[in-house]
UniProtKB/TrEMBL annotation:
GO terms for cellular component: cytoplasm. InterPro entries: GrpE, GrpE_CC, GrpE_head. This is Protein GrpE. Its main location: cytoplasm. The lineage of its organism: Bacteria, Pseudomonadati, Nitrospinota/Tectimicrobiota group, Candidatus Tectimicrobiota, Candidatus Entotheonellia. Pfam families: GrpE. Keywords: Chaperone, Coiled coil, Cytoplasm, Stress response. The keyword Membrane does not apply. It comes from Entotheonella factor. GO terms for biological process: protein folding. The keyword Coiled coil applies. Participates actively in the response to hyperosmotic and heat shock by preventing the aggregation of stress-denatured proteins, in association with DnaK and GrpE. It is the nucleotide exchange factor for DnaK and may function as a thermosensor. Unfolded proteins bind initially to DnaJ; upon interaction with the DnaJ-bound protein, DnaK hydrolyzes its bound ATP, resulting in the formation of a stable complex. GrpE releases ADP from DnaK; ATP binding to DnaK triggers the release of the substrate protein, thus completing the reaction cycle. GO terms for molecular function: adenyl-nucleotide exchange factor activity; protein homodimerization activity; protein-folding chaperone binding; unfolded protein binding.
Length: 163
């Protein structure tokens, strides 16, 4: 009788083990399917975002093309006005995505936002004297550091600014 009960218990446990193993396999398959679906949806979302950005830039490209097509008949003044209008349009598109140009001149040098490409005599030490290439931020993230000329009062400052 005792052997029979042990045998029944073992059979019962084997059945439970098989059931649990089947549930585990099903859960693992569900997880794999979820991951594939999530990756596919993320890729699709990225593609939609890229398309939206590019759609917003197409009018800028169109206007540049128009300006180039009229270069033979346009006056220098009208070309300049056209380029200024396209520049405003481009900065508007950047602003729509939270991108703005850094203000650098007369601000303290910050290696997180600025790349010192030259030093020049000046005071106060470490203040940006001039901007060679503008930097841009998107919200709080630096997209491109500004290339700047930094005021210095000594030759030893070259190491400090990474030049």
């Amino acid at each position: 009788m005792r052997d029979q009960r042990m045998c029944d218990d073992l059979n019962s446990q084997a059945g439970e083990t098989a059931t649990m193993e089947e549930r585990w396999k099903r859960a693992a398959a569900d997880l794999a399917n979820y991951r594939r679906r999530a990756e596919r949806e993320l890729a699709q979302q990225r593609q939609r975002e890229r398309e939206a950005v590019l759609r917003d830039w197409l009018p800028v490209v169109d206007n540049l093309e128009r300006a180039l097509m009229n270069r033979d008949t346009a006056t220098l003044e009208s070309l300049l006005e056209g380029v200024q209008a396209v520049y405003r349009q481009a900065t508007h598109v950047l602003g729509h995505y939270g991108v703005s140009r850094m203000q650098t001149v007369d601000t303290p040098f910050d290696p997180e936002q600025h790349e010192a490409i030259a030093l020049a005599p000046g005071r106060p030490e470490g203040v940006i004297l001039d901007e060679v290439n503008p930097g841009y931020v998107m919200h709080e993230t630096t997209l491109r550091p500004a290339q700047v000329i930094v005021a210095t009062t000594s030759k030893a400052a070259e190491r400090r600014y990474g030049i």
